[in-house]
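subagent[fold] <- orchestrator: predict structure for attached chain, return tokens only, no commentary.
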Amino acid sequence: MILRRIVIKRAQFDSIPQEERAFFVQAGVVFTELMILNNALHAASSQEADSELLRKARTAQCLFFARILTGKLAECWELFQQKFFGGQLSRKYVPILNPQGIEALDRIRKYFGKLNLIQSIRNNYAFHYSQSSEQIDQHLHLVPETAALELYLSPEGEGANCLFDFSCLLSTFALLNEIDGSDHQKAMNKWLSEVFDVAIWFRDACDEIMFAIATKYLGEKLDAEAVEIPDPPKLRDVTLPYFVGLS
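subagent[fold] -> orchestrator:
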């Protein structure tokens, strides 16, 4: 695979006004983190699981990445709301963006302009462990009385391979019940569909805005050199196991 290496000299970087420069940096972080989390979620979900335990482990890992990706998307909205839409940047750059960037920004504003799953999940399930004892008990009551609450402990000294499935089960039941308590599979599909769509919109928006800033202040033709790396594996062939050997 051939990549293009572009070097921005410090003097060039300093020539970008402070507000644009800060957003340029933050947009690069957003794009990179969303790409990493998206790839990790796909890799975790592609892991083969030919037993009930392995399926539970795969589910726990996938839901972890899905919750973190969801939380990151909510934080992306905070960045865009405050630094792009809330300041002068939107008035300066929206008129010169390509149609793909304009469409992505429009979709983002419409999505976050109303109550949405991403912000709800971010506040309750993505980053925080602040739920009260009463709330935890409410989650427990959502689980059928016939459900098995299980935990799996690895040999002494190998704590990396423990799985507290009952904790994942309670959290997952609570999360999915908020979306659609009558059909958890439908709730899961709705959640992940929205997450993947919004992630694409933010990546498209960051890409287009960064390109516009770079073109405006660094010139249309930045010096680039070809850098070759070994051909990476296909995303569909990459897996991320939950259980790992420690020696």
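orchestrator: received. Logging for downstream: Residues 17-131+192-218 form one domain. The chain has a mean pLDDT of 91.
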